[in-house]
Amino acid sequence: MAECIDELGIQSKTIGIASVGCSVFSYNYFNCDMVQAAHGRAPAVATGVKRADPSKIVFTYQGDGDLAAIGTAETVHSAARGENITVIFVNNAIYGMTGGQMAPTTLPGQVTQTSPYGRDVQTVGYPVKVCEMLSQVDGAAYLERVAVNNVKNLMAAKKAIKKAFQNQIDGKGFSLVEVLSACPTYWSMTPEKALERVASEMIPYYPLGVYKDKYAEEGTK
Ligand SMILES: Cc1ncc(C[n+]2csc(CCOP(=O)(O)OP(=O)(O)O)c2C)c(N)n1
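A: This is the predicted complex of the input protein with thiamine diphosphate.
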């Protein structure tokens, strides 16, 4: 993300919205103005910041607990309104910061602190597939799912993130990039094994790719 901001030359006018989760510390890692939102509310805060000063480039950085549980409404409605913001959605299939509880995106059968026998879909339901869900929302302009488990996927992730920022520069509206990532700590795995799990379990359940590219579809790119 930071490389994209640098390469697009937008650092001085970029405002990030930090969410709640491990991402809460993102204001320590990005050298741009940052605002801290309440849990799940980052797209609503981003909406306010962007509407107050449309010349700014506004992004959110949110985990799956933040974006797809407590923040589902803000996510869906900011997409439906077609807000001209960039949302980076880090899906690690678990609540990291609070100690490894089940998230909306926890895989069927996945063991977490609150699903010690594995996620039982009969009892707690199925994972929420955010890109698939938002692809039905007319206001969303660009939705892509990427992963950061190997160099090839990292390069593709950067390309998608850059496009999500470029869309905002071009006034194209709501862009979201879902980034499949690992949480070695609460998956109780070495970092290496955790990356292997992204490939063997996450990508098959959450296929990578572009879920919507409104302007490409309309041929008005
Ligand atoms: C209103 C409110 N409810 C619950 C919490 C507790 N809480 C803090 S972080 C978090 C989940 C974060 O999970 P995720 O978004 O997946 O981020 P990760 O830590 O995995 O990056 C929760 C439930 C809170 N801080 N505020």
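Residues 2-218 form a domain with the Rossmann fold fold (CATH 3.40.50.970). Residues 151-169 form the longest helix (19 residues).
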